[in-house]
Amino acid sequence: MECGLCCNYSWVDFVFTVLGICTFLFDLGADLWVAAEFYLQGDYHWFGIVLSFVFVSSALLQMFSWFWFKYDTELEHFKPRTTTETLMLANGGRCNRLKLLHIFQLGFFLRYVTAIEQGFQVWWKKRNEPRHVIYLTHDLSMLRLFETFSESTPQLTLMIYIIIHNNKAETFQWVSITACFISIAWMVLEYHRSLRFFLPEKSKLGCSSSVVYFLWNLLLISPRVAAVALFTSVLPPYIALHFLLLWAALLLWAWAQHTDFMDSGPGEWLYRAMVALIWYFSWFNVAEGKTMGRSLIYHTFMAADSSILLGTWYWYRDPLVTDQYVLPLLLALLTSYLLGLLLKTIYYKLFHPKIWQPLFQAGEDVPDNLVYRSLSPTDTLPSVINKRMGALANSFYFSSSMRTGGKTNGIEINAIM
């Protein structure tokens, strides 16, 4: 009987995990270098903003990590599987040690250490069954997604704004921009790969689908980042007001879609706040049903908002400085956005897998926060399910209609929904 969840863990997956923490540390090191350069130059304003991005993003990661650790350790069949987990959870220290690590902003690194240790045992020593390490890497990819949109993307916007404002770029600023782009690119690739674990092998596609998926995301995010940076260059005091008003509206929209991703009320509102932040830069599906209408509304609204930002910049810009590049820049941003929409359409027409999905009718898309993985009619549920990433996978991949029963962690799937 074929399992719908891909349970192969190879050296490629192990390398991706190791490179994941390397890119994270490179991004963090670049941020600290940028902050130090601003401090040494006496630009304490930029120094404070850069550090605030780092600390706020880190705090958000630790909160999500803590919520998920707490949920996982309370599962009936949970048991430590690595030396790191055993040390952290031994002798009644199940919550206290983990909480202390997260308070000191080390919970995210603990996840990477655990994933690398478990991955090495599975791939090299062939000691353990691969499901657990796959479970761990799914959560890491989700946390990196949050980190990208709460730190790397705002940081990229800030660096572009500073370059435009000063009409020059220094070496450390180019390093920061490079680090942000690498972080965003890696997040998109790793996130896509992580979702693919939830597909049967026969539904998997080659690297072409990942390339197209990466490109349309990059082509749609880049004009948005540029529009925000250009607006900020002419009216810096108003960008905070713009962000807060738009973020609040997007938060209400997330609430109106009745998301059900986390396991507690406060956790769910934290998730909705993060979704609203992601929406400020990029589309992210969070509710079941037909998503074409919601996606169309989102892209129309964000295109109008970005146009207003660009129009405001064009009106208030300094012609002496910008006339030489204003038209090529606007044409490049428009081309990037339209090409991104075209590639997104091509992806969903030609590359997007169609798989069985047990609960939804034909023609319905499923949300980024479903609590089970996609199954074919003959699949059985494994004993360990990462419901969080199973949720994302089921929202991302269009499914055929087929109602089946099943249990995850002893709970009826239909009851969960």
Topology, please?
Blueprint: H1 11-40, H2 44-73, H3 83-89, H4 96-103, H5 107-123, H6 131-166, H7 171-196, H8 207-234, H9 236-256, H10 265-279, H11 292-316, H12 319-322, H13 326-351, E1 355-357, H14 387-396, E2 399-401, E3 407-408, E4 411-412, H15 413-416
Parallel strand pairs: 1-2
Antiparallel strand pairs: 3-4
Family: Belongs to the XK family.
Membrane topology: Multi-pass membrane protein
Subcellular location: Cell membrane; Membrane
Task: Kindly describe this structure.
By secondary structure, the protein is mainly alpha-helical. Among the domains are: 1-197, no CATH class; 357-416, no CATH class. Helices cover 69% and strands 2% of the residues. It contains 15 helices and four strands. The chain has helices at 11-40, 44-73, 83-89, 96-103, 107-123, 131-166, 171-196, 207-234, 236-256, 265-279, 292-316, 319-322, 326-351, 387-396, 413-416, and strands at 355-357, 399-401, 407-408, 411-412. The strands form two sheets. Strands 1-2 form a two-stranded parallel ribbon. Strand 3 (407-408) and strand 4 (411-412) form a beta hairpin. Helix 1 packs antiparallel against helix 2. The longest helix has 36 residues, at 131-166.
